[in-house]
Every structure is written in C-alpha cells, then in structure tokens.
Amino acid sequence: AADFDLSKFSRAPARFDPEELTRLNARLLHETPLESVRSRLSAMGVDVTPEFWEAARPNLDRLEDAVTLRNLIEGPVTPVVADEDRDFIATAAEALPAGTLDAGSWSAWTSELKAQTGRKGRGLFMPLRLALTGESHGPEMDKLLVLIGRERALSRLNG
C-alpha cells in the first residue's frame, strides 16, 4: 500500500471494449489446463477427455464453445462436398486407414491421397475438412480425425 500513488494513473476515463474482453478470455482459455475447467464443462453436459481438450482449447473464445466442438465430433454433421470434389471424397473414403485412428493417421492418409490424386495444399485439405466437419475452419485435423473416429469419418465421407 505504501507504493500506491494515484498520480501514476491516467486521467482518461476507463473504456470497456467487449472485443478486447473476448480476446483476453480466449487467451486465458488457450492456456488453461483441463482440471481447471472440467467441473464447469461437466455442468454444461460436456464430459471431455484430455485429448479433446488439447484439440479444442486453441479454438475456444468462450468455454461454451466447447459444446459446439463436442457436437462437431459426436453429433450429426452435414458434410459439405462440392460437385467437383465428389470423386476425391470417394477416393478418400476408400483410402481411410483401417483400424483405430491415431496421431499419425491424418498425415498418412493425406500423404496417400496426395500420391493417388495429385492434390496438394488447400485442394487436398479443405474438401476433407468440409466433408468431415461441415466447417471450413476449426481444430487441427490430425487431432480432430482421431476424436471423430473411423466409423464416424467413413459415415461422413460417404454422405
């Protein structure tokens, strides 16, 4: 208290910026360990695994966004497949690695698709993201594919 000095404060009025508050909240969430939010997530009906939290938290602005991401993984998703991507997505369904998907599955799968189709970059990745999630942005696909699982992924790829 001895160091407190009102002359060190600006005379300008404080301003409230909701966008800055959202950015600050997002930055805090991005660094928050699962154990600090598990009870709040459970109260929202989201029982999360450490793998889900690691994939989701870099994409959260608010904790409530975890519900949306959980639905993206477990819920019904309307795949978005452009007419020009239909054959590619059919090839992708056939090339999806067998068995349980793991951290290396996305890389192996997309490498195989690149070799089979010659697609690369956005032309390779965006149709897969849209078919699997119905969204053009979101968590990293290598983490998301593991959480979606093979059966759900096949169902979404096959429309």
Sheet/helix structural class: mainly alpha
Mean pLDDT: 94
Query: What is the count of DSSP helices, taking H or I runs of 4+ residues?
Result: 9
Instruction: Estimate the global geometry from the Cα principal axes.
Output: elongated
Q: Could you give the order of the helices and strands? A: HHHHHHHHH
* Level-2 CATH architecture of the largest domain: Orthogonal Bundle
Topology overview:
Elements: H1 18-31, H2 34-43, H3 50-56, H4 65-74, H5 86-95, H6 105-117, H7 122-133, H8 141-148, H9 150-157
Helix pairs in contact: 5-6
What features would you describe in this structure?
The chain is mainly alpha-helical. The chain has two domains: 18-74, no CATH class; 83-157, Arc Repressor Mutant, subunit A, CATH 1.10.10. The chain has helices at residues 18-31, 34-43, 50-56, 65-74, 86-95, 105-117, 122-133, 141-148, 150-157. Helix 5 (86-95) crosses helix 6. The longest helix has 14 residues, at 18-31. The chain is elongated, with a radius of gyration of 21 Å.
Can you describe this structure in just a few lines?
With 159 residues, this protein is mainly alpha-helical.
Which terms would index this structure?
159 residues, mainly alpha, Arc Repressor Mutant, subunit A, 2 domains, 9 helices
